Amino acid sequence: MPKINLPIVNSTSHFFPLILNAMISIFILWLCAGEIKQEDVGLKPEMAFFSSNNPRRTPKITYLHIYECQQFSMGIFCLPPSGVIPLHNHPGMTVFSKLLFGTMHIKSYDWVVDLPPHMPTIVKPSSETEASDMRLAKVKVDADFNAPCDPSILYPAEGNMHWFTAVTACAVLDVLGPPYSDPDGRHCTYYQNFPFSSYSVDGLSIPEEERTAYEWLQEKEKPENLKVVVKMYSGPKIVEN
Ligand SMILES: [Fe+2]
Asked: From which residue to which does the signal peptide run (predicted)?
């Protein structure tokens, strides 16, 4: 089983500036974490984390916290079938997600930044309400993933907004570098998505055959039905201090 030895990860500090050292540390971490498999973390679909008591309610999600420092955080999301981690962002962060078992639908987006300047990509839905602006995004990934599969990685300016829907019970190892931090401006924002055709905007034209790849995203409060129970990971040791 791969073990992530943090002192070795940090041993480059004598030779590289701090920011480069952080990037190298995270890169090494991801290489190690990419090797972690279901059997290494002692999780099975039959465990209570992966069943929902009430089929009429949105399934509760469990987050098993493994480790956090200034440079990264690591944990495992356990989702029962139909469990959803709704559309959210990772400002200024790089995120590595590895499906350990199960089938997961992943949808991710990029902000649209490459249209000509006369085409608006941010619009106000109504001048009479306090509703947030709608911002144009392009779908980057919209597919089912079956474990074992390659990890998916999002970057500060690539695929930074995503949502997960569990097709079957699933476990996902998540590594965030750096972690969320409100004081440092890395706050998690949730979004509602709308089809491109929901709004017609003067001056904005997208070829008809490409329109399904575009959607409007609007900030919203954290969904009330999102229930994430945080527990400490207690399986086999995977991070050595
Ligand atoms: Fe995420």
From this structure: none
